[in-house]
Amino acid sequence: MLASNNPMARFLKLVAKIEAQEVKAVASSFLFVVVLMSAYYILRPVRDAMASDWTDAEVSWLWTLNFFISTAVVGVYGMAVARFRFRYLVPSIYGIFALTFVVFYVLAYTSADRTLIDKSFYVWVSVFSLFHISVFWSFMSDLFNKEQAGRLFSIIAAGASVGGLIGPSIPSFFSASMGTDNLMLLASVMLLIPIPIIFYLQSLKSTELHNEDLELTPPNEPIGGNPLAGFKMFFSNPYLLAIGLFIFLYTGISSFVYFELKNLLSELNRVERTAIWAQMDLAVNTLSIATGLFATSRIVGKFGMPVTIALIPVLICIGLLVLAISPFLGVVIGLQIIRRAGNYAVTRPAREMLFTRVDRETRFKAKPVIDIVAYRGGDMLMAWLFTGLTQGLGLGLAAVAIVGAGIAGLWTMVGIYLGRWFEQDDTDSSGKAMPKTEANITQRSSIL
Known about the structure:
Layout: H1 7-16, H2 23-51, H3 56-83, H4 86-110, H5 114-143, H6 146-178, H7 180-190, H8 194-207, H9 229-236, H10 238-264, H11 270-294, H12 296-325, H13 329-353, H14 360-392, H15 397-422, H16 438-447
């Protein structure tokens, strides 16, 4: 542990608000997400390059299939949460995903017809893209307390952006020489690296962070309960429903911008598209690192959660109105970069802080329902909405941008509502801490 009078400890506390006893946990968490996101960002441009070979309707069908597969995977995960010993739950998830990408690597070399393999890979990477980070943040919410989350989550989230620089640089510069199939094998190996880090962080929770009081379930026992309880929690809890709506509206903006970029890049070959998507990832993550390291925690501290979580939705609403006036490729690319960088550096850390107010079962059962099922449901519906607006009604980019601005406006209001909810006191009239139960959350919703 760094002594509190150590120059490095004082520097970290001044610049990034990290206490001396938190340095090891923050550094390990940072490395964890760097490796995790590097692996994902190796796979992401490979997946996105495939999409330009298919029509909007084909991609919409794949997104629909993705929703149902994601829902099934969340159900299976719920069974694992209920039955697996908690200590081994998170490491097992990453080991299983690593194995699946080895299988795709083998199939890529043995299959004569790549169409089915490519579409299956596209869907599975889309499942992985939300699942791996949802499990990571569930683990982080279980590791740090609410006060620490406000100071540290944006710093840890900056690690995702560092991974977003390392990962896409590989396909950006080496996709032609390595071949896209070999990237699958590289990513699968990288997914094994976080496993020992997870065990180390579990030990730091009690030895240095002193957050053992957050544990309701012993690490060598399963969480237990109904494997499908996460779905019931989500639909019966107003706080969780509001988070789900916030994510649903975010997917609307994401889908609109993604489809426009997909269509504009359709004339390029797959290697060129892979390089361009990877270079956009580099730009996004370069912008988000400094914000996450030095700005987000200060925004939370100075302006509070309502402003923090609604900041990027406001900027996106303004950007879409600009796009409606100037519907050009450069504006779309700029909007995409701001949307994703703002999400990684500001919106995502703020959103993950919301889960420090719930218990472990909710984090590991209901959170994936929100992060994956609600997200992919939004993807599916918004993809078909976009297809209907463009191919059905024949609307152009400017008109679609106006529709998107309306969605962003609603997204902003939900963000402000959630931020105010988060900042409600966890104490009753006598000053005693209130337990984090569904009843208390519901009670707070009636106040708002």
